[in-house]
Amino acid sequence: MIKKMGYRWHLRQLMASQGMFQTTDLVPLLAERGIHLSREQVFRLVTQPPQRMSMDTLAALCDILGCGVEQLIEVVVAEEEVRKTGTGGQATRDAPRVRRTTIRRPDMP
To answer: DSSP strand E in the chain: where?
Structure first.
């Protein structure tokens, strides 16, 4: 059995608790800490959970928001337990029913 893990990204909520409601509010604060991201990159960082992020960016966000990593990223179990099977994870589905069929040529009744 394996557990599938996921995470929840709380950047937008933490920004709101600090009175920051626009993604552009972060751009100069990150720049003060040596993190130079475009407005579009910051927008994506705020509106979507990132798949990859530098540790420097993560540390800067925690410093700006006065929080710890555990408040910014909440690790959750996405699926309780996934049984590993040789069928690509379809262990719970029923096997297809076998139907007998007859193939006839058009010229033979």
So the answer is: 2-9, 73-82
* Percent of residues in the chain assigned helix, strand, coil, to nearest 5: 40, 15, 45
Rg of the chain (C-alpha set): 25
Domains of the chain and CATH, by start: 2-82 (1.10.260.40)
Q: What gap in Å lies between CA 29 and CA 15, rounded to an integer?
A: 12
- Tell me the pLDDT tens digit for each residue of 57-102: 999 999 999 999 999 999 998 876 555 566 555 555 666 777 777 7
pTM for the model stands at: 0.68
